[in-house]
Specification:
Layout (H helix, E strand, L loop, with lengths): L30 E4 L2 E7 L9 E7 L7 E4 L3 E8 L2 E5 L3 E5 L4 E4 L5 E5 L4 E8 L3 H8 L1 E3 L13 H6 L2 E5 L3
Length: 170
């Protein structure tokens, strides 16, 4: 007897309930002004049964979240357009151009900052839940870009979601 199901759709992880597949159009997803950028929530905890949060951020030069540690989730950031500066841990600093992907495990200090205007970054957070910080701390909008000093990340709110802000000045 094989441990693999004859039909892959019958396989299910013991740790998470099965999630129905769905398609979400970016234009229809909620947008928030958050941490000096526009964040589009592409998939949230409810849609993925807690497996992953997918968001897109759009920043002007100098925009980005302050130096922080995610205590609950790992982060993947993929540069769609523009360029971002990334500082991981205490020593690793680099720039990432379109097509570059950065992975940062939970518990590791990080800073991601836009190096040029209209930098678009796709983020994946595992497990899901990061979007709750965006929703609670952000301002719902239809905007596609904002000034970098609008709606900064509130350290008290971030702490409720397992994010420790280390330096508000990046």
């Amino acid at each position: 007897m094989s441990d693999v199901a004859d039909n892959p759709s019958e396989m299910q992880s013991d740790s998470k309930p099965r999630v129905p597949a769905y398609v979400e159009r970016r234009e229809e997803c909620p947008r928030y002004i958050f941490a000096g950028g526009v964040w589009i929530v592409l998939a949230d905890e409810a849609q993925t049964s807690g497996n992953i949060t997918n968001v897109e951020s759009i920043y002007q030069r100098g925009g980005g979240l302050p130096r922080r540690i995610h205590e609950r989730e790992a982060e993947m950031a993929y540069v769609i357009s523009g360029r971002m500066r990334v500082r991981i841990g205490e020593e690793h600093e680099t720039t990432a151009d379109p097509g570059a992907m950065v992975f940062i495990p939970r518990g590791v200090p990080r800073t991601i900052t836009a190096d040029v205007d209209d930098t678009r970054i796709y983020h994946g957070f595992v497990p899901a839940g990061f979007e709750k910080l965006i929703i609670e701390n952000g301002i719902k909008t239809d905007a596609t870009s904002v000034a970098i000093d609008v709606a900064p990340c509130n350290a008290t709110v971030a702490k409720r979601y397992g994010i420790c802000i280390l330096n508000v000045n990046r």
